[in-house]
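tool=predict chain=A
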Amino acid sequence: MKKLIPLLMLLVSMPSLAQRQFDIEVIVFKRAVNPEKVNESWPNDMPDIDFSRAGSLNDSSYRASKGVQALPSASYQLNDEVAKLRNHAGYTVLMHKAWRQGDNGKGSAPVFRFRAGKDFSTQFYPDGSEKGSSSNTSSPVDGVTEVAIDKPLYELDGKLQIYVQHYLYAEAQLDLKSPSTKQVIVSAPIDETPAGAIESIDLSENTASDDVQDSNVIAGNLASIEPQRETLTFLKDYRLDQKRRMRSSETHYLDHPLMG
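tool=predict ok
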């Protein structure tokens, strides 16, 4: 059976006298499967996604700087597909957005950052480590107690760029975050030889040979000691990282076994 095809995009070219305009509609959804049960190798550590050029579709100033118009939900064309996904127990829709942009190149086309889904900030730190039972409240000073307010840590976090470079391209880097476990070494054993494990060496004239000396060294009571390991829960990133050539007025799918 073919793997799930998880990122659904519709791009429609809108010609004008000034420049071409593209209406872009995107659905991001995930599969209801255990990521560790999928026949894939998932690294525990992923490099951070570069969001230095990315902006939010909800940011009107960023949209204006890129000549982007957010489209109302009444104009969406993939509502039937969303309804089918939501009615299926195997899928969860994380995001459904649409906007209009020009035919800019890679250097000037908008890069949108999308965050959606469950907020894990009450369970995990931004580096993915699990929070302990201790409170995140500092000691009171002069009767004032400072409380650290965690930033949202969304289940979906990534970026998407649509641009023209002779052809129409889509570049997607999307992380799906999900709790996982890993084993770490918490302490390594110190290799100590038990008292009396090595017998004395006879250094008399009759045992001057190195071979004879080596034969008089007897090791005893040496046991193999395994390092102590601990199983830790952490927030793991499962990444979709793809670049795809597109055609306008077509619906495109990006393959990934978990999400898109």
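The chain has one domain: 7-187+227-254. The longest strand covers residues 167-187.
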